[in-house]
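Anyone up for a design puzzle?
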């Protein structure tokens, strides 16, 4: 029996996840990897996020990242590991996280007691994460916690993000949504990544997108205009609720008061970061 207010864990996640992901939109990440000889944005992303898994090939990354076209992943992996090691990639990612957070939050926030508190709370929540059937979380859980509070906070946000993400993939599989159908239906909620961003970064073509739309229409998930039907809305809601159930442990472990406090702190950081241009303006959009 949960002791938390309904969706409290999800609300907390929604403030922490963007603070994890802002690094992948940061020019600092490309700069760090460019100095290692990796310049293609897709290669940078696969190396940066997949490095915790080791020198894996395209199959492992396609399976754990879920919504990328395998052909795009195979274009860069395992070739990227012929030029850099996973350890070098992890170092570059952490340096990018450091410079990005300092830039979008400011030195005062980075050095604040609130940042120390957020790092402590987020790390305590992550103590209750579980490794079984969660490959991206488990790989990151084997990494050392950085000493500096803002990087410890980013590391904890990464753990919590990948823990929830691994669970969400199980929910997508259970719902029978393939990688592109998951993206299309999420975009239709108005909260997902804009289609142009998906097509530019996930390796899919417009014909692939249109095919997924037609499959979802045939299942009654989308209507003729491409909007979610009542059944589609219910499906997306159940996906999130199933993910909540699989991701409850960290927030139950933290407790209602500290979850509320971590959410408050994360929301404050997120507002500052967004105001500083941490995310593209057109990242979330319909159509």
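Challenge accepted. My sequence:
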């Amino acid at each position: 029996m949960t002791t938390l207010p309904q969706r409290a864990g999800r609300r907390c996640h929604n403030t922490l996840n963007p603070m994890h992901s802002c690094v992948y939109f940061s020019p600092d990440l490309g700069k760090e990897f460019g100095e290692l000889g990796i310049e293609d944005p897709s290669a940078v992303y696969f190396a940066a996020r997949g490095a915790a898994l080791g020198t894996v090939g395209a199959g492992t990354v396609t399976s754990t990242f879920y919504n990328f076209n395998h052909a795009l992943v195979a274009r860069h992996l395992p070739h990227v590991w012929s030029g850099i090691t996973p350890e070098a990639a992890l170092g570059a990612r952490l340096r990018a996280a450091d410079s990005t957070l300092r830039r979008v939050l400011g030195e005062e926030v980075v050095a604040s007691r609130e940042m120390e508190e957020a790092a402590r709370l987020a790390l305590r929540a992550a103590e209750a994460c579980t490794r079984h059937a969660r490959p991206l979380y488990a790989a990151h859980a084997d990494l050392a916690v950085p000493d500096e509070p803002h990087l410890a906070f980013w590391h904890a946000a990464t753990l919590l993000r990948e823990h929830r993400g691994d669970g969400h993939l199980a929910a997508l599989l259970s719902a029978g949504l393939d990688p592109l159908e998951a993206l299309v239906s999420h975009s239709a909620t108005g909260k997902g990544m804009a289609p142009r961003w998906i097509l530019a970064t996930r390796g899919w073509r417009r014909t692939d997108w249109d095919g997924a739309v037609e499959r979802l229409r045939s299942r009654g998930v989308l209507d003729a205009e491409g909007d979610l039907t009542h059944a589609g809305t219910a499906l997306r809601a159940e996906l999130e609720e199933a993910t909540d159930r699989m991701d409850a442990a960290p927030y139950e472990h933290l407790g209602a008061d500290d979850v509320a406090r971590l959410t408050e702190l994360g929301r404050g950081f997120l507002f500052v970061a967004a105001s500083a241009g941490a995310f593209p303006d057109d990242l979330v959009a319909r159509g």
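A detail worth pointing out: The mean pLDDT is 97.
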